[in-house]
């Protein structure tokens, strides 16, 4: 016996098409508005750098748009759910479906399947595009919108200890022995942590051992004098492996790179619960799009002439936004160690899945 989870092929394609087109339309609208507002705030800093112009503004847009798309796609799915169900209910199309013998779950099934496809595409887009654009944008911002970093593995504001001394870099690109640091400062300190001097350089590369600083300038604290050193090697105890685990940005690494970073930090005895929570959230985050049709389905059922359609729409929107609040709170609590990473990432998803299913069952009754 075949279990009919979906309505007819024609109705399934009709509902899926309505839903997908509204997701795309809402996402484009949100991204355009938010990108214009964001560009208004950042354009001054970008154009303040000598040599920057319209091309750099467009570069910023191309790096920022993927972040906005990834962040607001679940919101777009929620709003698209309401914009799909509201007219269907208002025009009594849902009533016709129910009168034809379809259950509430069958009416909702095409939207859930479409949302699952959107979630899978979102996951691939996040891991392939968003992580790279995030790494490049952060490294570019750390360079104060100078030359756009082109190498992979970009990081910003790197801080490393070499015994009592400190090595700092504004940005870092590349991996392993190919790492390149920019705007580098090496602080020479005594055992009492008092700074005796500092060496600044626009660029440093791995010298195996140590880091070769080019066009270095030294400032001696005691003598209060500045000296041109040319090329000098510092921090012989700092290795590329230490740099790799010094500052891991989960938003700038895909799930495979983050897995390697977590393993390296565990081997070094570092705390990894925050990174593990982010690892799980790379999966549960995009999958939250599947919840949105379930949470917004309250707007689909109930008679339009009862006068409660607006209230149902508000309830659906409130449930969706409440999920994002709880999800962010759970991740924050997990970062502080209050929840295990797995619980922090998945509890809101399963909790609101139960809430949405309960609302749908009660509505169907």
From TrEMBL:
Organism superkingdom: Bacteria
Keyword Transmembrane: yes
Primary location: membrane
Pfam families recorded: LptF_LptG (PF03739)
Assigned keywords, A-Z: Cell membrane, Membrane, Transmembrane, Transmembrane helix
Name under which the protein is recorded: LPS export ABC transporter permease LptG
Organism (species): Novosphingobium aquae
InterPro entries: LptG, LptG/LptF_permease
Topology with respect to the bilayer: Multi-pass membrane protein
Transmembrane segments: 12-34, 107-125, 309-326, 338-361
Compartments, record wording: Cell membrane
């Amino acid at each position: 016996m075949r279990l009919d989870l979906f309505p007819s092929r024609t109705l399934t394609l009709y509902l899926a098409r309505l839903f997908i087109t509204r997701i795309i339309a809402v996402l484009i609208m949100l991204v355009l508005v938010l990108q214009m507002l964001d560009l208004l705030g950042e354009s001054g800093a970008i154009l303040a750098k000598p040599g920057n112009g319209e091309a750099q503004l467009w570069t910023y847009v191309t790096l920022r748009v993927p972040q906005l798309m990834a962040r607001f796609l679940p919101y777009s799915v929620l709003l698209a759910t309401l914009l799909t169900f509201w007219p269907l209910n208002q025009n009594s199309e849902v009533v016709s479906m129910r009168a034809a013998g379809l259950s509430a779950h069958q009416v909702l099934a095409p939207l859930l399947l479409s949302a699952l496809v959107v979630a899978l595409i979102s996951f691939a887009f996040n891991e392939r595009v968003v992580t790279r654009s995030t790494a490049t944008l952060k490294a570019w911002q750390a360079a104060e919108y100078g030359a756009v970093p082109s190498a992979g593995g970009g990081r910003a504001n790197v801080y490393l200890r070499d015994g009592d001394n400190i090595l700092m870099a504004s940005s870092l690109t590349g991996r392993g022995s190919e790492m390149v640091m920019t705007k580098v400062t090496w602080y020479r300190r005594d055992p009492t942590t008092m700074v005796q001097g500092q060496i600044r350089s626009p660029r440093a590369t791995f010298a195996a051992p140590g880091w070769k600083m080019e066009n270095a300038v030294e400032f001696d604290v005691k003598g209060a004098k500045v000296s041109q050193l040319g090329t000098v090697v510092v921090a012989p105890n700092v290795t590329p492996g230490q740099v790799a685990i010094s500052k891991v940005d989960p938003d700038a690494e895909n799930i495979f790179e983050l897995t390697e970073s977590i393993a390296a930090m565990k081997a070094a005895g570092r705390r990894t619960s925050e990174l593990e929570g982010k690892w799980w959230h790379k999966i549960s985050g995009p999958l939250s799009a599947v919840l949105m049709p379930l949470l917004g389905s309250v707007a689909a059922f109930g008679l339009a002439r009862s006068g409660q359609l607006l209230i149902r729409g508000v309830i659906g929107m409130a449930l969706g936004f409440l999920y994002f609040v709880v999800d962010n709170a759970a991740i924050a609590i997990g970062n502080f160690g209050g929840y295990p990473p797995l619980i922090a990432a998945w509890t809101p998803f399963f909790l609101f899945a139960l809430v949405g299913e309960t609302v749908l069952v009660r509505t169907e009754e």
